[in-house]
Amino acid sequence: MENLQYYFDMVENCIRDLGVDPAICRGEQAGQWSLKKGSASVWIDVWNIESEGRAYFQVLAPVMQVPATNTEAFYQELMELNYTLYGVAFVKFKDWVYVKLIREVDGLEQKEAAATINRVGWYADEYDDKLKVKYGVVVGGRG
What we know:
Elements: H1 5-17, H2 22-25, E1 32-37, E2 40-49, E3 54-65, H3 71-84, E4 89-93, E5 96-104, H4 110-135
Antiparallel strand pairs: 1-2, 2-3, 3-5, 4-5
């Protein structure tokens, strides 16, 4: 099982490099952080999955609820947008759409972690307002 403190420190250094105090970003459990990038919330998680014997790094940002109408066009647009994204994707969980990247922590370097946090935040901030206006849905809480 991975010793996660190295990765916790790495994430906190990334947050600090953004000019934010990582202590105010920490979640309820070790390995969870939340911060803002423009209008988007960005959630960062580092955790072990004991049954797999490995640990993961995830950056996730809620974009919006799935619209009640015009969903086929909405999903089509997300699929087309996914083609233009670098290293991340729009994903759906329950009735929410997120920008997400997940990978094993093995081999993760601070430069990659920082780029991922920035990229997920940038894409979520870039598209949340555009998609909300187009599909008339308000962004909110964690799915």
